[in-house]
Amino acid sequence: MILILVTRRDIIDDLVDIVYPMPDLPADDAGEAVQDGRDGVEARRRGFEESLRLAEEKAGYCYDPLLSEISRARKEMREAEQKMRLLVAYGREFISPRPYQLKDLAAAAGYSVSGTRSAYNEDEISDVAARVGRLPRSQRGA
């Protein structure tokens, strides 16, 4: 009798591979730094898989790991967009004696010049002011 072991893959295994792909091995052995990098990725993969399996176990049939990850990715995108608006506001409103040029901020942010001009509002300016502990240039008289 021949026993064939088949590894069952599920959606969580696939999500681990998509979200935390293993880095390709370099042609030449780069040594300890490469191994440390791979070890770090493997640790993140294990932690991610454990958290997905635990969430699945707790929620049961109500839990969809793919939809959960898509939702998490969308949340991260919104947070990154907010961070970009704050950085653009900082570059335009807080840098002295002259603000960054719109064209330079637009190129860095992947916006059009007009999109950069309207990328932030008074709320973002107030948020930056609170974070850096000073008023924008226009309110400092600079």
Describe it.
With about 140 residues, the protein is mostly helical. It has two domains: about 10-15 and about 35-65; about 75-140. About 65% of the residues lie in helices and about 0% in strands. The chain is built from seven helices and no strands. Helix 1 packs antiparallel against helix 2 (about 30-60). The longest helix is centred in the middle third of the chain and has 29 residues, at about 65-95.
Query: How many separate structural domains?
Result: 2
| Cα-based radius of gyration, to the nearest Å | 23 Å
Q: What amount of the residues lies in strands?
A: under 5%
| Straight-line N-to-C gap | 85 Å
Low-confidence runs of at least 5 consecutive residues: none
Total number of β-strand segments?
A: 0
Query: Could you state the order of secondary-structure elements as H and E?
Result: HHHHHHH
Number of helices: 7
Structural class label: mainly alpha
In this structure, how is the largest beta sheet organized?
Answer: none
Helix content: 55-70%
- Molecular shape: elongated
Q: Whole-number average pLDDT?
A: 90
Characteristics:
single chain, 142 residues, mainly alpha
Quick rundown:
With 142 residues, the protein is mainly alpha-helical. The protein has 7 helices and no strands. The chain is 66% helix and 0% strand.
